[in-house]
Amino acid sequence: MIVTLTANPSVDRAVLLAEPLRRHAVHRSESELEQPGGKGVNISRAAVAAGIPTLAVLPAEKGSDFLRELHALGIDCQPELPSGPIRVNLTITEPDGTTTKINSSGALADESLMHRLADAVLARADDCDWVVLAGSLPPGAPDAWYAELAARLRPSRARVAVDASGGPLLALGAALGDAAPDLLKPNAEELGQLTGTPVQSPEEAASAARDLVRRGAGHVLVTLGSGGAVLVDADHAWHAPAPPTKVVSTVGAGDASLFGYLLGDLRGAPPETRLRLAVAYGSAAASLPGTTLPSPDQVHPDHLDVRLLA
After folding, report:
1. Which residues face 130 on adjacent strands?
2. What are the residue numbers of the active site?
């Protein structure tokens, strides 16, 4: 079972344009899509599609349209009373797959909400295989909140995966001795921010990720967009390039990659297979509109090459 925590969920609105985006111009959309989102929510959506039990912990009003949509998708939820309305994120996608995102900050969170979210996760940590702490924190939440929660989860049965950015990621990086997760999933830019080293190639990603493993992280999965992904553990580093993909929307591709890795782990797969699933899931998500997460029949990991990096 996977428990996901989405402290700052979103309503994701996607607009597909029939022509390239031009400033000061008037555009008409070719199609529009609205979906419940947030990184943890996305991982729970992918889990349900793959038949993996999941529980989504998030701030949401009981009986709200947002929760009704999640329940309609088959997602079990643990809602905590929010401090304000759920934010709206806008994605504009051009015909060639170029994506422009405008993300709202979300409602100001109070201390009570953050305590209730943490307690809800801790209460289920001995009943699940993975706890996923993912996405931005709402305004008002301290940057160290993920690091503190990861440290509190360490005595539990659950393994912890973290996908964060900005201040919360840097705070986690500074606390890896006590708060090191079993899986850390940065992209290339985030990895560079964590280690102070620019990351462009798979080899550079592996070198930087090894530093995080030496500091305590169990595994580091670095997503490289069209460059695929790199996986590093205490002994080895692997790279899997992405397959040729007609990109429709990159939103949610990183979340899909993280789920692909978790799915492989739950199946008892070796690291190379977990990496293949991560890249296959991410590529499949990039070929779908909006924040659509792929189902297993849309994911094809078997033909992906994985090479061991020196």
Report:
1. 2, 159
2. 255
